[in-house]
Design a protein that fits this description.
The protein has a 13-stranded antiparallel beta sheet. It is built from three helices and 13 strands, in the order αββββββαβββββββα. The N and C termini lie far apart (68 Å). It has helices spanning 2-33, 117-121, 239-244; strands at residues 36-46, 51-61, 65-72, 80-84, 87-92, 97-101, 130-140, 143-152, 162-168, 174-180, 186-198, 201-211, 218-228. It has a single domain, classed as Lipoprotein localisation LolA/LolB/LppX (outer membrane lipoprotein receptor (LolB), chain A, Clam), CATH 2.50.20.10. By secondary structure, the protein is α+β, with helices and mostly antiparallel strands.
Length: 246
């Protein structure tokens, strides 16, 4: 009987810790997203012999609706990406063509950067598509952080086999993430820095994605301006609007 009670307590404790870890990840995700979010970002791709910069506008509503519009450079102006629930489309104005991206393309590079398509349009949900476990604590930039391991749930189509995130304990800021492939090999490291207030929210305003096996290569995503919780109608997130928004 004592053994049975002990097993039940251990199982209950594991479930509670898993729920708490998921709650921490959700708080960090919700803080970055808000109910709605719209803003302007710079995406800077750095290579050993060159670098380039893109100016983008973004609109997001919850976890299921998002739209990204590239404004510069001129050759990419008007290219747009739309997400509705689990479906993602890409509008190519030069070709006057809309392409639906299959799940197999989510792991591919987004516009030649070190971010994947999934990193930008968030087809997968870091709260619903993964199981979460506390694995330790650390300090980043003098901020105490939780270390949380995220493993994909069975039969869930996601890019990574494991993600480890470090989230600030006080302000729920995602400050460091590590991404692993199907062989358990570390592929990318992402750091969140330049913490400041944006429209009343304290958030990292610069994210740096670094591929571990490519020397002197990285991509920076810099938030220039953000507005949170401004009403956006669902009808804004349509293929027709995506074509016209530029």
């Amino acid at each position: 009987m004592k053994l049975f009670v002990t097993i039940i307590l251990l199982l209950t404790s594991s479930c509670v810790f898993a729920q708490q870890a998921k709650d921490i990840v959700k708080k960090a995700d919700d803080k970055m997203r808000g109910i709605t979010m719209q803003g302007e970002i710079i995406i800077r791709t750095v290579r050993p012999t060159w670098s380039r910069e893109m100016q983008c506008k973004v609109w997001m509503k919850g976890n299921s609706l998002s739209l990204i519009l590239i404004q510069s450079p001129a050759r990419d102006k008007g290219i747009a990406f739309l997400k509705r629930k689990k479906e993602v489309w890409n509008w190519m104005p030069a070709l006057e063509r809309t392409i639906k991206l299959p799940p197999s393309m989510m792991s591919q590079s987004w516009m030649g950067t070190d971010f994947t398509n999934d990193d930008l349009v968030k087809e997968s949900s870091i709260t619903e598509d993964y199981d979460h476990t506390f694995i330790g604590d650390t300090i980043i930039d003098k901020r105490p952080c939780y270390i949380i391991r995220m493993i994909p749930r069975p039969q869930t189509a996601v890019v990574w086999s494991k993600v480890v995130v470090c989230i600030d304990k006080n302000d729920f800021l995602e400050l460091h993430s590590r991404f692993y492939d199907d062989d358990g090999k570390l592929v990318n490291i992402m750091n969140g820095t330049d913490v400041q207030m944006m429209d009343g929210r304290l958030i990292p305003t610069r994210f740096e994605m670094i591929p571990v096996d490519k020397k002197n290569q990285k991509t920076e995503m810099i938030y220039q301006q953000l507005k949170y919780d401004k009403p956006i109608d669902d009808g804004f997130f349509t293929a027709e609007r995506m074509k016209k928004i530029s």
